[in-house]
What we know:
Blueprint: H1 13-17, H2 42-54, H3 58-61, H4 77-98, E1 108-109, H5 112-122, H6 124-134, H7 146-175, E2 197-198, H8 200-209, H9 214-231, H10 235-249, H11 256-265, H12 273-281, H13 294-325, H14 330-342, H15 346-355, H16 361-378, H17 384-388, H18 402-415
Parallel strand pairs: 1-2
Amino acid sequence: MDDGNDDAITPSGDDAGNNPFAGMPLFGDLSRALSGQGPLNWDAARQFALLAASGGDMAGAMTPGGKVPVPTGNIEPSVRIKYAELAGIARLHVADVMQLTVIESDPEVATPEQWAAQTLDAYRPLFNDMATSLGQASDDDGSNDPMMQMMAGLSKMMAPAMMGMSVGSMVGGLARRAFGVYDLPIPREGGSASKLVVVPPTIDKFATASDIELDEMRLWVIAHEMAGHTLLSIPHIADHLRSLVQRHVGAFRPDSSAMTDKLTSLDIDQSDPMAAMQAAFGDPEVLLGAVRSDEQIALEPELDTAVAVTIGVIDWVVDAVAVRIIGGNALHIADAVRRRRAEASPDDLFVERLLGIRLGADQTARGKAFVQGVVDRGGENGLAPLFNDADAVPTPNEIGAPGLWLARVADFDSAG
C-alpha cells in the first residue's frame, strides 16, 4: 500500500545506482515508483487510466510530486434527476421480465474519468491476481550474457510499473466507450457491486451520432444496467463467472526473453514520449512477454460459454423491456449498440487477451441464440432454472443446443 510518503518508494543508494532510468525525464515521477506497491503499481495505473479516459496529456493527469488527483464530476444535477425518473420506469419492466428483484436505488452518473477510477477500484483484486501471475520470473533465463542478465533484472524491476501502465491504459480506453458498469460483464466486488453507474457524456454522444432520441437511449442503457446488475447479483452466476476469470488471469506463464525483446525494441516518439509509452503499454504483448498457457486454452470453452450466456440474457431482457417502453425505435437502438460492440477496439482486444473476456459479434450471436432458443421452447420463464439453481449453469456443449439444456434442467427439477 502507498502511505503517501514519497521517500518510501524513491530508489536510493545502490538501488538508485542500478536503476537505468534514474534521471531520465521520460519517466519523470513514475520512475520513483517502480517498486513498493506490490505486483502492480496503482499510482501508475491511475495516472494512465485518467490520461486515457480524458484524452488529455500526462501533465493533466498528474500533480507535482507524482500524486494522482481524484477526478471531479461535472454532470449537471438535471441529468441526475432525469436518470432517476427514467429508472423508475425501467425498473418495473425489468423486474417483470426477469421475475426477480431489481435494485431500488437510482443510477449514479459519472464522467469517463470517474468510471475509470471506479473500475480500477472494483477490479483491484482481479488485477492484482493478474499482475502476480504475469510477474512470475523464469527460473532459467538461459543466458550468461551480462547484458541479458541486466535486461532480465530491468524487466523484474519495471514489472509493477509496466503492469500499472498497461492496466490503466486498458481501463481508461474502455472508459471512453462505456455506457455503464456492465459493458464489461464481470461481477464487481466491494461497494461498487451494489451500485448502478451510467456515463451520460458517452451516452449523449452516441445517441447524437446514431440519430437516437436522447431519453430513449437513456432508457435503453438503464434497462441494460439493471438487467446486468440483477443477473450478476445472483451469487452462483457471479461466482461462476468470477472464478473462471480468476483462473484465467492466474494461468499466465510469462516468457522473460520475449519481455526483454520488447523492452529493447520499443520505439519511443521523443516528440510526445508519454503518448508513445501509453500506446506501447496498451499492447498486452509488452506485459512480460505474456503468452497463452495450456491451462488458458483448456479453460476457453467454459469461459466463452459463461460470457456468452451473460451477454445473451442481458440482451434478451433489454430487448423485451425496450419494446415495451420505447416501441418501434427499440430495434434501431439495439442494432446500433450491437454494431458498436462488434467493432473491436484495441482495448477490447486487450480485455480478451488479458482477462479472457471475448466481447465480439460471435459471442453476442451465440448468447442471443441460446437464450432465444430457451424462451422459444420453454416460454418467458424458461430461464428460471438458470436464475435459481447453481447446477443449471449451461455447459459448453449446451450453449449451442438450448433444447439439450432444457432437457437437463427439467430432469434435474423432476429429480429434485
